[in-house]
Design goal:
This protein is mainly alpha-helical and 344 residues long. Helices cover 44% and strands 11% of the residues. The chain contains twelve helices and eight strands. Helix 7 crosses helix 11 and helix 8 runs antiparallel to helix 10.
Amino acid sequence: MKYKNIPDLYLIKGKIVFRKHITVNGKSFNIWKTLGNPEDFSENELIKIVTKLRKKVYEKILKFRDVKKVEKNSVEGVVKAILQEEAGKTVKHKLKFESEPIFTKEPTFGEILEKFFSWYKAVRKKSTYKAELKRSRNLIRFFGKNFPFLRIGTKEIEEYRIYRINQGTSKSTINKDLRLLSTVINRAVEFEWIPEHKLYRKPLLFREVKNERVRYLSKEEEERLLQVLDSGKNKILKNVVLLSLHTGMRLGEVLNLKWENVDFKNKVLVLFPDQTKNKKRHVIPLNKIAYKALKEQETMKLLKCPYVFHRNGRKIKSIKDGFKNALKKAGIEDFRFHDLRHTF
């Protein structure tokens, strides 16, 4: 069904979709683009998006005026087809409010953050979204939600650095906060929520930051920890630790592991791009200990559960308490699960 009578916009399965049917040189094409959820856009924003796309098409018309051949399955061919169809036409659907800003008055920091995370939630993994939303609280505690967004400048950035340093925060963590703030500023300008910002695409981070903390298990500590895990009833915790210790995998990668990632025949794990931090495919070899840990998990495998590590068919979200107790029993201090990667 058409969405709010805006040309070429439809509501399909709860999503706003841009759909256009064209015919060029006797060939038909359907152009689809999913924009997102209805609650993520105002009517004005949607019309502005459509208008902007049409304007870009109109500006490029002359470049493709002489296109004669269009390949059926070629993305480039489809784009050229759209441009060919639009040739000689005027953009009829102009906005009377086109030059009006998204905000009628100077936006606050809280208002911009709300729009940013509405977008961020739709384009990032749930875990990443939650982590950055949590990180934004550090910025909110300092600036406050009502602080004028356009007033954030180099002076405020330096004050924030000093504020966080006085809290005992590492420069690496402060940089993560500032990287989020920089992304918010850049997107606010690029998405035209604001006309401009003095910190747009400006460096905000500390330079040459090195994490001084490099913690790993000594041979004695590793033996004590494994002894505690071997004697305990929580075999899942033991296998999670063993797998990370002998592959260098992150906790999130281990807990998100599915049986489709496990190749017992070739003794490797294959992690797909959506399962890794850098969005790249990883092939991880398994040594005897890691292989044995997965084989033990296989005895707990449930037909309807895709996850390697689960409790009663439900994915395990955290092992924090169990790991903390194991460290305490082993007499190990100042150690985090992530430090197992350093030991590896």
